[in-house]
Amino acid sequence: xxxxxxxxxxxxxxxxxxxxxxxxxxxxxxxxxxxxxxxxxxxxxxxxxxxxxxxxxxxxxxxxxxxxxxxxxxxxxxxxxxxxxxxxxxxxxxxxxxxxxxxxxxxxxxxxxxxxxxxxxxxxxxxxxxxxxxxxxxxxxxxxxxxxxxxxxxxxxxxxxxxxxxxxxxxxxxxxxxxxxxxxxxxxxxxxxxxxxxxxxxxxxxxxxxxxxxxxxxxxxxxxxxxxxxxxxxxxxxxxxxxxxxxxxxxxxxxxxxxxxxxxxxxxxxxxxxxxxxxxxxxxxxxxxxxxxxxxxxxxxxxxxxxxxxxxxxxxxxxxxxxxxxx
Length: 327
Description:
Layout lengths: L2 E3 L6 E3 L3 E2 L1 H4 L7 H13 L4 E3 L8 H9 L8 E6 L13 H15 L4 E7 L3 H6 L1 H11 L3 E7 L3 H7 L5 E7 L11 H8 L2 E5 L22 H4 L17 H9 L11 H10 L6 E2 L6 H8 L9 H15 L8
Parallel strand pairs: 3-4, 4-5, 5-6, 6-7, 7-8, 8-9, 9-10
Antiparallel strand pairs: 1-2
Helix pairs in contact: 2-3, 2-12
Protein backbone atom coordinates (compact mmCIF):
# COMPACT_ATOMS: atom_id res chain seq x y z
CA UNK A 1 0.00 0.00 0.00
CA UNK A 2 1.17 3.51 -0.79
CA UNK A 3 0.46 6.36 1.61
CA UNK A 4 -0.05 10.07 1.00
CA UNK A 5 -0.04 13.05 3.33
CA UNK A 6 -3.53 14.49 3.81
CA UNK A 7 -2.80 18.12 2.96
CA UNK A 8 -1.30 20.10 5.83
CA UNK A 9 -2.42 17.56 8.46
CA UNK A 10 -0.29 15.05 10.33
CA UNK A 11 -2.27 12.18 8.78
CA UNK A 12 -0.45 9.87 6.37
CA UNK A 13 -3.24 7.84 4.79
CA UNK A 14 -3.58 4.96 2.34
CA UNK A 15 -4.09 6.10 -1.24
CA UNK A 16 -6.88 3.54 -1.54
CA UNK A 17 -9.25 3.91 1.40
CA UNK A 18 -12.91 3.02 1.77
CA UNK A 19 -16.27 4.71 2.20
CA UNK A 20 -19.03 3.07 4.24
CA UNK A 21 -22.23 4.41 2.70
CA UNK A 22 -22.93 1.04 1.06
CA UNK A 23 -22.52 -1.01 4.24
CA UNK A 24 -24.54 1.50 6.28
CA UNK A 25 -27.53 1.64 3.96
CA UNK A 26 -29.03 3.25 0.83
CA UNK A 27 -27.30 0.85 -1.59
CA UNK A 28 -29.73 -2.01 -1.24
CA UNK A 29 -29.46 -4.74 1.39
CA UNK A 30 -26.12 -5.37 3.05
CA UNK A 31 -24.72 -8.01 5.38
CA UNK A 32 -23.02 -6.87 8.60
CA UNK A 33 -20.84 -9.97 8.91
CA UNK A 34 -19.55 -9.54 5.37
CA UNK A 35 -19.08 -5.80 5.98
CA UNK A 36 -16.89 -6.47 9.04
CA UNK A 37 -14.86 -9.04 7.08
CA UNK A 38 -14.41 -6.48 4.30
CA UNK A 39 -13.17 -3.84 6.75
CA UNK A 40 -10.76 -6.33 8.30
CA UNK A 41 -9.46 -7.42 4.90
CA UNK A 42 -8.83 -3.80 3.94
CA UNK A 43 -6.84 -3.22 7.13
CA UNK A 44 -4.83 -6.41 6.53
CA UNK A 45 -3.80 -4.92 3.19
CA UNK A 46 -2.64 -1.67 4.78
CA UNK A 47 -5.75 0.52 4.52
CA UNK A 48 -5.65 2.95 7.46
CA UNK A 49 -8.43 5.40 6.60
CA UNK A 50 -12.21 5.01 6.39
CA UNK A 51 -14.90 7.56 5.63
CA UNK A 52 -18.37 7.41 7.14
CA UNK A 53 -21.25 9.69 8.25
CA UNK A 54 -23.77 9.86 11.05
CA UNK A 55 -26.62 9.28 8.60
CA UNK A 56 -25.25 6.13 6.95
CA UNK A 57 -27.79 3.64 8.19
CA UNK A 58 -28.73 6.09 10.96
CA UNK A 59 -25.30 5.65 12.57
CA UNK A 60 -25.00 1.93 11.77
CA UNK A 61 -21.87 2.39 9.62
CA UNK A 62 -20.13 4.19 12.48
CA UNK A 63 -20.93 1.29 14.81
CA UNK A 64 -19.54 -1.23 12.32
CA UNK A 65 -16.31 0.78 12.14
CA UNK A 66 -16.08 0.83 15.94
CA UNK A 67 -16.38 -2.94 15.99
CA UNK A 68 -13.84 -3.53 13.22
CA UNK A 69 -11.19 -1.08 14.48
CA UNK A 70 -11.41 -1.85 18.22
CA UNK A 71 -7.96 -1.62 19.78
CA UNK A 72 -6.48 0.02 16.66
CA UNK A 73 -7.81 3.53 17.22
CA UNK A 74 -4.32 5.08 17.07
CA UNK A 75 -3.40 3.55 13.70
CA UNK A 76 -6.73 3.44 11.86
CA UNK A 77 -8.04 6.91 11.02
CA UNK A 78 -11.75 7.64 10.70
CA UNK A 79 -13.43 10.55 8.96
CA UNK A 80 -17.10 11.10 9.69
CA UNK A 81 -19.61 13.76 8.71
CA UNK A 82 -22.50 15.72 10.20
CA UNK A 83 -25.50 17.99 9.47
CA UNK A 84 -27.73 15.82 7.32
CA UNK A 85 -29.49 14.36 10.36
CA UNK A 86 -31.08 17.81 10.63
CA UNK A 87 -32.50 20.41 8.25
CA UNK A 88 -29.42 21.31 6.21
CA UNK A 89 -30.90 24.72 5.28
CA UNK A 90 -31.60 25.76 8.88
CA UNK A 91 -28.71 27.75 10.46
CA UNK A 92 -29.62 26.14 13.81
CA UNK A 93 -28.32 22.82 12.44
CA UNK A 94 -24.84 24.38 12.46
CA UNK A 95 -25.05 26.04 15.88
CA UNK A 96 -22.55 25.11 18.55
CA UNK A 97 -25.21 23.23 20.49
CA UNK A 98 -26.24 21.14 17.46
CA UNK A 99 -22.74 20.43 16.14
CA UNK A 100 -21.51 19.50 19.60
CA UNK A 101 -24.41 17.04 19.91
CA UNK A 102 -23.70 15.51 16.48
CA UNK A 103 -20.02 15.19 17.41
CA UNK A 104 -20.68 13.55 20.78
CA UNK A 105 -23.16 11.12 19.22
CA UNK A 106 -20.62 10.08 16.56
CA UNK A 107 -17.87 9.68 19.16
CA UNK A 108 -20.17 7.43 21.16
CA UNK A 109 -21.01 5.23 18.16
CA UNK A 110 -17.38 5.13 17.02
CA UNK A 111 -16.28 4.37 20.61
CA UNK A 112 -13.49 6.93 20.30
CA UNK A 113 -12.33 9.98 22.20
CA UNK A 114 -11.41 11.93 19.07
CA UNK A 115 -12.54 12.10 15.44
CA UNK A 116 -9.57 12.24 13.06
CA UNK A 117 -11.39 14.22 10.37
CA UNK A 118 -14.80 15.81 10.98
CA UNK A 119 -16.58 16.96 7.83
CA UNK A 120 -19.62 19.10 7.14
CA UNK A 121 -21.79 16.83 5.01
CA UNK A 122 -22.67 18.58 1.75
CA UNK A 123 -24.12 21.78 3.23
CA UNK A 124 -25.85 24.44 1.09
CA UNK A 125 -23.65 27.20 -0.33
CA UNK A 126 -25.26 29.86 1.88
CA UNK A 127 -24.07 28.03 5.03
CA UNK A 128 -20.50 28.00 3.72
CA UNK A 129 -20.72 31.69 2.83
CA UNK A 130 -21.99 32.50 6.33
CA UNK A 131 -19.03 30.60 7.76
CA UNK A 132 -20.01 30.63 11.45
CA UNK A 133 -19.94 26.80 11.59
CA UNK A 134 -16.18 26.91 11.09
CA UNK A 135 -15.82 28.78 14.38
CA UNK A 136 -17.65 25.92 16.10
CA UNK A 137 -15.29 23.40 14.50
CA UNK A 138 -12.28 25.43 15.60
CA UNK A 139 -13.58 25.22 19.16
CA UNK A 140 -14.08 21.43 18.98
CA UNK A 141 -10.56 21.11 17.60
CA UNK A 142 -9.10 23.17 20.44
CA UNK A 143 -10.92 20.92 22.91
CA UNK A 144 -9.47 17.80 21.29
CA UNK A 145 -12.84 16.37 20.24
CA UNK A 146 -11.71 16.49 16.61
CA UNK A 147 -8.21 16.33 15.17
CA UNK A 148 -8.89 18.07 11.86
CA UNK A 149 -11.93 19.25 9.91
CA UNK A 150 -13.03 19.53 6.32
CA UNK A 151 -16.05 19.75 4.05
CA UNK A 152 -17.76 17.31 1.71
CA UNK A 153 -18.81 19.54 -1.20
CA UNK A 154 -21.10 19.16 -4.19
CA UNK A 155 -19.56 21.76 -6.52
CA UNK A 156 -16.29 23.43 -7.46
CA UNK A 157 -17.71 26.77 -6.27
CA UNK A 158 -18.29 25.35 -2.80
CA UNK A 159 -14.82 23.86 -2.74
CA UNK A 160 -13.22 27.19 -3.63
CA UNK A 161 -15.21 28.91 -0.86
CA UNK A 162 -13.88 26.40 1.66
CA UNK A 163 -10.28 26.97 0.58
CA UNK A 164 -10.57 30.50 2.01
CA UNK A 165 -11.12 29.06 5.50
CA UNK A 166 -7.72 28.59 7.23
CA UNK A 167 -8.90 25.65 9.36
CA UNK A 168 -10.16 23.50 6.46
CA UNK A 169 -7.73 20.61 6.00
CA UNK A 170 -9.58 18.46 3.46
CA UNK A 171 -12.24 18.56 0.78
CA UNK A 172 -14.29 15.57 -0.23
CA UNK A 173 -15.41 15.77 -3.86
CA UNK A 174 -17.21 13.83 -6.57
CA UNK A 175 -14.53 13.05 -9.14
CA UNK A 176 -14.12 10.34 -11.76
CA UNK A 177 -13.79 9.82 -15.52
CA UNK A 178 -17.40 10.98 -15.91
CA UNK A 179 -16.88 14.01 -13.64
CA UNK A 180 -13.47 15.55 -14.39
CA UNK A 181 -14.13 19.27 -13.81
CA UNK A 182 -12.64 19.55 -10.27
CA UNK A 183 -9.15 18.82 -11.63
CA UNK A 184 -9.15 22.02 -13.71
CA UNK A 185 -9.14 24.69 -10.98
CA UNK A 186 -10.06 23.22 -7.61
CA UNK A 187 -7.28 20.64 -7.24
CA UNK A 188 -4.37 23.00 -8.06
CA UNK A 189 -5.73 25.64 -5.65
CA UNK A 190 -6.26 23.04 -2.92
CA UNK A 191 -2.65 21.89 -3.34
CA UNK A 192 -1.47 25.51 -3.00
CA UNK A 193 -3.38 25.84 0.27
CA UNK A 194 -2.24 22.47 1.62
CA UNK A 195 -5.75 21.01 1.55
CA UNK A 196 -6.11 17.27 0.96
CA UNK A 197 -8.58 15.79 -1.54
CA UNK A 198 -10.76 12.77 -0.77
CA UNK A 199 -12.44 11.41 -3.88
CA UNK A 200 -15.90 9.93 -3.43
CA UNK A 201 -17.94 8.09 -6.10
CA UNK A 202 -14.77 7.09 -8.01
CA UNK A 203 -16.87 4.62 -10.01
CA UNK A 204 -19.85 6.94 -10.59
CA UNK A 205 -22.23 4.75 -8.53
CA UNK A 206 -21.01 1.67 -10.40
CA UNK A 207 -21.27 2.97 -13.97
CA UNK A 208 -17.50 2.73 -14.33
CA UNK A 209 -17.44 -0.96 -13.48
CA UNK A 210 -18.85 -1.48 -16.98
CA UNK A 211 -21.25 -4.09 -15.61
CA UNK A 212 -24.54 -2.25 -16.09
CA UNK A 213 -26.80 -2.51 -19.13
CA UNK A 214 -29.81 -0.44 -20.14
CA UNK A 215 -31.93 -3.18 -18.51
CA UNK A 216 -30.20 -3.02 -15.09
CA UNK A 217 -32.48 -2.27 -12.13
CA UNK A 218 -31.85 -1.45 -8.47
CA UNK A 219 -33.57 -2.31 -5.20
CA UNK A 220 -36.19 0.00 -3.75
CA UNK A 221 -33.85 0.95 -0.87
CA UNK A 222 -30.93 1.71 -3.22
CA UNK A 223 -30.27 5.40 -3.96
CA UNK A 224 -29.60 4.41 -7.58
CA UNK A 225 -33.33 3.79 -7.68
CA UNK A 226 -34.83 6.43 -5.36
CA UNK A 227 -32.41 9.25 -6.25
CA UNK A 228 -31.78 8.49 -9.92
CA UNK A 229 -32.98 11.98 -10.87
CA UNK A 230 -32.13 13.84 -7.66
CA UNK A 231 -35.47 13.16 -5.97
CA UNK A 232 -34.02 12.84 -2.43
CA UNK A 233 -30.69 14.72 -2.50
CA UNK A 234 -28.22 16.24 -4.94
CA UNK A 235 -28.45 14.55 -8.32
CA UNK A 236 -24.66 14.50 -8.63
CA UNK A 237 -24.45 11.90 -5.84
CA UNK A 238 -26.05 9.30 -8.11
CA UNK A 239 -24.35 8.31 -11.38
CA UNK A 240 -22.30 11.56 -11.15
CA UNK A 241 -25.39 13.48 -12.27
CA UNK A 242 -25.87 11.60 -15.54
CA UNK A 243 -29.20 10.07 -16.58
CA UNK A 244 -28.71 6.32 -16.08
CA UNK A 245 -29.23 5.27 -19.70
CA UNK A 246 -26.82 7.94 -20.97
CA UNK A 247 -24.30 6.89 -18.30
CA UNK A 248 -24.41 3.27 -19.45
CA UNK A 249 -23.93 4.40 -23.05
CA UNK A 250 -20.92 6.56 -22.12
CA UNK A 251 -19.36 3.88 -19.94
CA UNK A 252 -19.57 1.49 -22.88
CA UNK A 253 -17.34 3.88 -24.85
CA UNK A 254 -14.73 3.77 -22.08
CA UNK A 255 -14.30 0.00 -21.97
CA UNK A 256 -10.98 0.30 -23.82
CA UNK A 257 -9.30 1.56 -20.63
CA UNK A 258 -9.48 -1.95 -19.11
CA UNK A 259 -6.97 -3.38 -21.58
CA UNK A 260 -3.81 -4.22 -19.65
CA UNK A 261 -5.34 -2.94 -16.41
CA UNK A 262 -7.35 -5.91 -15.21
CA UNK A 263 -10.84 -4.49 -15.41
CA UNK A 264 -12.67 -1.22 -15.98
CA UNK A 265 -13.11 -0.42 -12.28
CA UNK A 266 -9.40 -0.71 -11.51
CA UNK A 267 -8.52 1.26 -14.63
CA UNK A 268 -10.98 4.03 -13.67
CA UNK A 269 -9.56 4.37 -10.17
CA UNK A 270 -5.96 4.25 -11.41
CA UNK A 271 -6.73 7.33 -13.52
CA UNK A 272 -7.97 9.16 -10.41
CA UNK A 273 -4.91 8.20 -8.36
CA UNK A 274 -2.67 9.64 -11.07
CA UNK A 275 -4.30 13.10 -10.94
CA UNK A 276 -2.17 15.73 -9.15
CA UNK A 277 -3.65 16.84 -5.85
CA UNK A 278 -5.63 13.67 -5.09
CA UNK A 279 -4.85 12.22 -1.65
CA UNK A 280 -7.06 9.13 -1.60
CA UNK A 281 -10.02 7.45 -3.27
CA UNK A 282 -12.85 6.15 -1.10
CA UNK A 283 -14.81 3.55 -3.09
CA UNK A 284 -17.62 1.74 -1.34
CA UNK A 285 -17.94 -2.01 -0.84
CA UNK A 286 -20.31 -4.67 0.42
CA UNK A 287 -18.06 -7.72 0.32
CA UNK A 288 -14.48 -8.91 0.78
CA UNK A 289 -14.26 -9.53 -2.96
CA UNK A 290 -15.16 -5.91 -3.71
CA UNK A 291 -12.52 -4.71 -1.23
CA UNK A 292 -9.89 -6.83 -2.96
CA UNK A 293 -10.98 -5.67 -6.41
CA UNK A 294 -10.76 -2.01 -5.40
CA UNK A 295 -7.35 -2.44 -3.79
CA UNK A 296 -6.05 -3.75 -7.10
CA UNK A 297 -6.40 -0.28 -8.65
CA UNK A 298 -3.14 0.83 -7.01
CA UNK A 299 -1.21 -1.92 -8.81
CA UNK A 300 -2.27 -1.44 -12.44
CA UNK A 301 -0.42 0.68 -15.05
CA UNK A 302 -1.16 4.38 -15.46
CA UNK A 303 -1.99 6.30 -18.64
CA UNK A 304 0.27 7.74 -21.30
CA UNK A 305 -0.11 11.28 -22.67
CA UNK A 306 -2.21 10.21 -25.67
CA UNK A 307 -4.63 8.19 -23.53
CA UNK A 308 -4.95 11.10 -21.09
CA UNK A 309 -5.69 13.52 -23.92
CA UNK A 310 -8.31 11.16 -25.34
CA UNK A 311 -10.05 10.86 -21.94
CA UNK A 312 -10.06 14.63 -21.40
CA UNK A 313 -11.59 15.26 -24.84
CA UNK A 314 -14.17 12.54 -24.28
CA UNK A 315 -15.27 14.21 -21.06
CA UNK A 316 -15.53 17.71 -22.53
CA UNK A 317 -17.28 16.71 -25.74
CA UNK A 318 -19.42 13.71 -24.85
CA UNK A 319 -19.96 13.63 -21.08
CA UNK A 320 -20.09 17.13 -19.63
CA UNK A 321 -23.08 18.37 -21.69
CA UNK A 322 -25.25 15.61 -20.13
CA UNK A 323 -24.42 16.18 -16.44
CA UNK A 324 -27.38 17.54 -14.50
CA UNK A 325 -27.02 19.96 -11.60
CA UNK A 326 -24.06 22.15 -10.78
CA UNK A 327 -20.58 20.63 -11.12
